[in-house]
């Protein structure tokens, strides 16, 4: 329940923040008061941030030097995460409408320092290197001093333990 709430908050927080910030600034600092114009600006800035934010890939940087000049090397799907599962993570075969998602694991070569960085991308029904990054970790060192960092999302849910249909 809490995790689901976090996921929803994470999904909408940044867009809502930007969507509300722009009308707020216009009304508080520039005296714009017409509620319809403010509403229109809110909708516009919300939709614009929905289009732009996912493309920023804020976490896609080299874990050794922090550069964003990365070239894709290889990737693969992680293990399936079943919606309803047994304690060992395997599929609960008693559930007919069971479904699964999977992480995507990718490796990227840095064009600035030659380090290789690994990313874990968030689970999805169609796993891909385009999904948002939830873990960044160094795979092999670069040829400069290290200024980049490993990183792990606080929204990196764990999928341990059984989950049964009809139970929280
Ligand atoms: Zn680098």
Question: How does this model look, in words?
Answer:
The radius of gyration is 20 Å and the shape is flat. The model has no long low-confidence stretch (mean pLDDT 87). The termini are close together. The protein has two helices and five strands. It is α+β, with helices and mostly antiparallel strands. The protein has a five-stranded antiparallel sheet with strand order 1-2-3-4-5, with no helix packed on it. Helix 1 (2-30) crosses helix 2. Helices cover 30% and strands 26% of the residues. Strand 3 (116-124) and strand 4 (133-140) form a beta hairpin. It has two domains: 2-56, no CATH class; 70-152, no CATH class. Bound molecules: zinc ion (ZN). Zinc ion is lined by residues 62, 64-65, 67, 110, 112-113, 115, 142.
Chart the SSEs and their pairings.
Elements: H1 2-30, H2 35-56, E1 70-82, E2 100-110, E3 116-124, E4 133-140, E5 151-152
Antiparallel strand pairs: 1-2, 2-3, 3-4, 4-5
Helix pairs in contact: 1-2
Main features:
binds zinc ion; alpha+beta; 30% helix; 168 residues; 2 helices; five-stranded antiparallel sheet; 2 domains
């Amino acid at each position: 329940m809490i995790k689901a709430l976090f996921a929803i908050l994470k999904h909408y927080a940044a867009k809502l923040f930007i969507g509300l910030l722009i009308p707020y600034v216009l009304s508080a600092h520039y005296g714009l008061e017409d509620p319809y114009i403010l509403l229109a600006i809110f909708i516009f800035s919300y939709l614009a941030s929905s289009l732009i934010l996912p493309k920023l890939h804020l976490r896609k940087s080299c874990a050794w030097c922090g550069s964003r000049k990365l070239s894709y090397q290889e990737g693969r799907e992680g293990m399936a995460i079943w919606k309803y599962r047994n304690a060992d993570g395997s599929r609960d075969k008693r559930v007919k409408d069971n479904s699964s998602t999977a992480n995507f694991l990718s490796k990227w070569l840095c064009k600035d320092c030659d380090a290789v960085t690994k990313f874990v991308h968030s689970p999805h029904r169609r796993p891909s290197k385009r999904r948002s990054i939830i873990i960044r970790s160094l795979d092999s060192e670069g040829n400069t001093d290290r200024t980049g960092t490993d990183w792990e999302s606080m929204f990196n849910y764990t999928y341990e333990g059984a989950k049964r249909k009809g139970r929280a």
